[in-house]
Specification:
Length: about 300
């Protein structure tokens, strides 16, 4: 990817983030409740009218909407997303501290998913329409059909409650506590990726270079590992990158079920408590992270695949 293309993508990201910030700030502005009163109530203080009014002035809430937004955006550009009503800590600090646990969970789930789906996808493609292929496709169909929260609850019931092998509810984010949420996320993703890898492999098996290599007398294993797999995995890099971005902001249900201290659980708690600065910061942070990850994936894929550089 050339410098010009990267600059264009960065400009698109900035415009998109600006749009996200306008929508998010507008929705929070229209939300019920007085943020100044909520700020004081969450702090355990029963506010008087004078105190609420003074806090509104201190927070800049007495100013027009546009002026409030411009002030908030100016601070956000400098990394200041406000103060959390609940913890009284900077929003950025809370986001970073929770993101560590989410990255651990997302990375572990992706690794486990690849360990499961890549061999199974190859196996399905090599044994197309045979018993092995039908069994794996049947299991993957079940995995795609079952929602994450249901799989998580079943795993909790069996391995946490009945067998007692793993903790059901525990504070912190240790390795033992990460096993069940990791399996929950990896199971449904592996089902989807197994089918995608199978489709990619079957598409490559039809290509002319495979027929030529067979005509040259190369062994099937050599054709598979040296020629088919590298070509089939280029699209997979994009999918994995997109999945990682989705996991950073899309694991809320699983994090709540397993009491995992990540970004998703934090966001749901902030919404329930009407912790508006945290909600604003979360949406902006996740949007920016997702777009940057997509850009990095595109750069990596274009550098690895010479066919894309010629377009």
């Amino acid at each position: 990817m050339s410098f010009k293309q990267i600059a264009a993508r960065l400009m698109q990201i900035m415009i998109s983030i600006l749009g996200v910030s306008i929508i998010t700030f507008g929705l929070i502005y229209l939300s019920p409740g007085d943020p100044a009163e909520l700020y004081l109530l969450v702090g355990g203080t029963k506010p008087s009218k004078e105190l609420v009014e003074q806090t509104r002035i201190d927070m800049g809430l007495d100013k027009p909407y546009v002026e409030q937004y411009v002030n908030w955006l100016g601070k956000a550009i400098k990394g200041d997303l406000g103060i959390s009503y609940a913890s009284k800590l900077p929003v950025t600090e809370v986001l970073v501290s929770n993101m560590k646990s989410t990255i651990q969970l997302a990375t572990s789930s992706l690794i486990l998913m690849l360990l499961i789906s890549v061999p199974l996808g190859i196996l399905c493609a090599v044994h197309k329409s045979r018993l092995t292929d039908l069994i794996i496709r049947g299991i993957s169909f079940l995995g795609i059909s079952m929602p994450n929260f249901w799989i998580g609850l079943v795993l909790l019931y069996v391995f946490g409650l009945k067998l007692g092998w793993l903790p059901i509810a525990d504070s912190g984010a240790g390795i033992r506590k990460m096993i069940l949420p990791c399996i929950t996320l990896a199971f449904s993703m592996a089902s989807k990726y197994t089918r995608q890898i199978r489709a990619l492999m079957l598409e490559e098996l039809k290509q002319d270079y495979v027929i030529v290599n067979r005509a040259r007398g190369l062994k099937e294993g050599t054709i598979l590992w040296r020629h088919i797999l590298p070509n089939a995995f280029f699209p997979l890099i994009i999918l994995v990158g997109l999945s990682f971005g989705s996991l950073l902001g899309g694991t809320a249900v699983v994090e709540i079920i397993f009491s995992w201290p990540g970004l998703g659980k934090m966001a749901v708690t902030a919404i329930n408590n009407r912790n508006y600065p945290m909600v604003q910061g979360y949406v902006l942070f996740i949007s920016l992270t997702y777009m940057i990850i997509n850009l990095l994936v595109d750069i990596i894929n274009m550098n690895l695949d010479p066919r894309l550089r010629k377009r």
